[in-house]
Amino acid sequence: MRVAAPLLALCLMVGCRETSAAPIRIDLGPAATDELTLVPRASLAELIEISPSESALYLTLTSAERTCEALAVADADAAGVSVRLLLPAGRKLEPGHYPLLTETPAPDQPAIDKPTVQSTVKVHGRRQELRSGGELTLTEVDPSPQGSIEGLLKFEFNGDAEHPATRVSGHFLAHFCRINRLRSVARD
User: Fold this and answer.
1) In whole angstroms, what is the distance from residue 116 CA to residue 21 CA?
2) Considering the domain boundaries, does residue 100 fall inside one?
3) Chain-wide mean pLDDT for the chain?
4) Which domain holds residue 54?
5) Is residue 185 part of a domain?
6) DSSP 33
7) C-alpha dist (Å) from residue 37 to 25, 41, 75, 124, 138
8) Which residues face 170 on adjacent strands?
9) Cα–chain center distance at 108
10) Between the CA atoms of 91, 94, 95 and 101, what dihedral angle is there, to the nearest 10 degrees?
11) Domain tally for the chain?
12) Does the first or last residue of the chain, that is N or C, have fewer Cβ atoms within 10 Å of its Cβ?
């Protein structure tokens, strides 16, 4: 029994990261220091019900060691991609194509009624929110406690007079660490 407990703990820790992760190509601008190939050491997913009519999927792909139970140790050289997929109006998490949109509607505008993606990249100690363009493609979704999510990042902004072109692309496989669903309350 003494051998089983450490072995079980090791299996649970390894279950939250993909050891043969595919590389993610990051290009944030024209300088050589703006380019990086990220080989994630941790690929984690969380599905959170924010309200009865809104859920969010959070993906974290990082070069830092991280488990489901603990945040990554602060490392200035760590690189990562964070993705948030907002699922409004009771939409379920399922395979499909989800656009990268960073604009949010003004308070006097109607809320966005379709799923949208926002993404932030960390490279060389600086964080940068990606501008609109491209999409998150989910190919396989198993939102169970030991489930996983697989897909493709295809984020691309062509650039404009004020912002350089950016691109983040690559395949990912992330394991669910947390699934928080709102509890239904029976009414009398």
Assistant:
1) 25
2) yes
3) 81
4) 4-180
5) no
6) G
7) 5, 13, 17, 12, 21
8) 153
9) 29
10) 40
11) 1
12) C
